[in-house]
Amino acid sequence: MDLSFENNNPGVCYLSGLSVIGPLRRKGLAKQLMLACESYCREHGIFRIDLNSVMTDWVIDFYKKCGYSSIKEQDGFMQMYKILTK
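The structure assignment produced for this chain is given below.
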């Protein structure tokens, strides 16, 4: 999983590359990674996380369960975001 930050968009994190290998799925690892990412962002003054999800129902459903909202489909991905609360 990669977290990217840009000087021209302060307060926003771009998350990419979250993946759990097949045999370890459904054990809560992706959720733990997401919570760690969100905690790190809060500690560093980040208020929003953006990501592009693959267009796979269970992946999009996972992000929605984590509190992410869909923006739009573009180039075969679903753009999503989450506003972090304190």
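Interim note for the steering committee: The chain has a mean pLDDT of 96. DSSP finds two helices and five strands in the chain.
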